[in-house]
Amino acid sequence: xxxxxxxxxxxxxxxxxxxxxxxxxxxxxxxxxxxxxxxxxxxxxxxxxxxxxxxxxxxxxxxxxxxxxxxxxxxxxxxxxxxxxxxxxxxxxxxxxxxxxxxxxxxxxxxxxxxxxxxxxxxxxxxxxxxxxxxxxxxxxxxxxxxxxxxxxxxxxxxxxxxxxxxxxxxxxxxxxxxxxxxxxxxxxxxxxxxxxxxxxxxxxxxxxxxxxxxxxxxxxxxxxxxxxxxxxxxxxxxxxxxxxxxxxxxxxxxxxxxxxxxxxxxxxxxxxxxxxxxxxxxxxxxxxxxxxxxxxxxxxxxxxxxxxxxxxxxxxxxxxxxxxxxxxxxxxxxxxxxxxxxxxxxxxxxxxxxxxxxxxxxxxxxxxxxxxxxxxxxxxxxxxxxxxxxxxxxxxxxxxxxxxxxxxxxxxxxxxxxxxxxxxxxxxxxxxxxxxxxxxxxxxxxxxxxxxxxxxxxxxxxxxxxxxxxxxxxxxxxxxxxxxxxxxxxxxxxxxxxxxxxxxxxxxxxxxxxxxxxxxxxxxxxxxxxxxxxxxxxxxxxxxxxxxxxxxxxxxxxxxxxxxxxxxxxxxxxxxxxxxxxxxxxxxxxxxxxxxxxxxxxxxxxxxxxxxxxxxxxxxxxxxxxxxxxxxxxxxxxxxxxxxxxxxxxxxxxxxxxxxxxxxxxxxxxxxxxxxxxxxxxxxxxxxxxxxxxxxxxxxxxxxxxxxxxxxxxxxxxxxxxxxxxxxxxxxxxxxxxxxxxxxxxxxxxxxxxxxxxxxxxxxxxxxxxxxxxxxxxxxxxxxxxxxxxxxxxxxxxxxxxxxxxxxxxxxxxxxxxxxxxxxxxxxxxxxxxxxxxxxxxxxxxxxxxxxxxxxxxxxxxxxxxxxxxxxxxxxxx
Length: 879
Ligand code: PEP
Ligand code: MG
Known about the structure:
By secondary structure, this protein is an alpha/beta fold.
């Protein structure tokens, strides 16, 4: 049965994720399917959310409902919480709607006390009972009472030293009794005598601690990194304890139904005999390969394999499962869709389509587009010829090169400035901020399913775990490997695909795109409606873009060509020219260079559309810096340089002063420059048309030329600029004696342009939304310097859901785009529309652009495959 806030195990199923959390719904579903799971009840996410909304105070009915559910659980199990004869022990676990491995708190063994420890031992295993007791005090003390872990760890270390015990398991029952007494004394001291021993009160406080842990810093960081909303809250699962630490016929472990690194269909898991679940995931003891369990516990093993296969077929996806065996009896504690690398995601999706488990469309929906980034990243050049200095487990693939950092906080800071590798004894979920900023993670301890490995894989960070031979000295900030010691200024290279560690920085090779990738990206192409182009302004990028599936170039920025060292003097000459003749002479020098650049790009993109944008950058970027020029004049005067030279520099200084703008981003940019100096669009048009003709001459094929006018606010600007472009282009084409089609369009990147798009469309063949500037001017946030300042804080404080320069501001800037499209099409119903701001490569933004009905998105070359997937997913989502 269930009440408002509490559901018995039998009342849930897989569809109730939002209410019961992933874990609660998953366990209920397993029970429904007849899989052996321990009995349980779940406190809903609603209870957590309401508690958060009431500033930490529980809804009135919550505790009575928990007490009733507890009573039902006691009746079903025939055990009692606090019952000296037949004690019920409980596990209290968090369960978010979207999995957040290890980010929140858990309390195990709740219910063991002075009164019940004998009852727990009644099965004959006294040592186990006292071991559970000391574990409980420590976990409850740390998680619920906030007592510092070292309080317990120091006491444990001391007793081990006193008793000459190497491992925890070497401690005898008497030792553990002594340890429990010490733990109780220390806990009481830490709390000033407030330690609660009533198990019901402990249960209440433990549930509350899990609620609170939703808001702990590492959970917050993880949610931010994975875009999980902060207001979902967590469910709390209260489950009967089953014991993997009840001697040699008990065990605990985790498994994936396929290899989460490669996707290969093979057994992939780890287990520990005589241990509790936390021992495996926390990486404290290095677990054994699951295959070995067949020898140790054959019956439970066979049942586990059957259950594993059944669960995968049931959920139609790779599962990540946790199990415990108590006295040879198997229990499943959790099953969820397993986190995996991008390569594995593709392989699993591909294989499952082949195995007939899922359809192509389902396969596409499974893939996290942003994860594909991983496949597109470099690996160590196989021809490096160096020997590794250490080897650990290949916990998360990819290569990482960086200087060493020995704690997560330092990595979080240094990682912004230079590539760093985080080196830790073992990582805990608290290290997440450092993991995000590091290139990769190296740990001395822990297995393939340790938190470090799971988190790194999810993020696509290379990780080598459990490299036992490295000796870390955190105080000295060094690591010794073999007979060499490496410090914070030394560089290591990690290979997360093999587990190898190399000294120094190894050469990397570009990523390999395999068949799985090709298959699935083709399925995406069959489904998507949006075109995908790339932003590229040189031949190399254009070639890369085409290789990755770009259907043309949506933005070729021409200013980068102007800034090249060999061109800047001519560009300066052009801007500072005082007569039209001087300007024309300067432009004459630039024209052939521009033409050459365009030819390279057009060669790479022959047969496809290429949008070339006329010059856009703020004027000051071409000019000498005002301060530097003043200093230069002063220096010349002081050193008594020749008078002509001084005069010449003074003249430049005056010109720079004359052109100086307080706010260059809102100054003489974009078409405003072309309006002042029509010779610039004229020269650029000539270069574009000549290049297109030359490429056709050479290759027999050229590009669809699209000439784009930037930063238009008034229809009149476009009208005049277009007139210049058309006159020049037509003249060039006529002179060549050939034919060439071209179109002229504009960027919509100012709010006024979006609002007056119907007027602008009269003069445009196409619109390309520049959502970078549209965000800057639409929200009024400088795109150049807001990031490190208030904007960063706004994102942390969740004033805005995400950084609007990363993912488009749906309600504001998104509406401007929608308005621009609608108004533009009200005048020309076939008006071609695209987006070329950074948002063109962001999956969430792509979904919006699909909804709005744009024709294409354009993004950086490496994001092209991501955009192809995201565009297909947008179709499937809107079906
Ligand atoms: C834009 O503003 O979105 C755009 C693509 O142009 P740029 O980033 O070059 O200003
Ligand atoms: Mg712009």
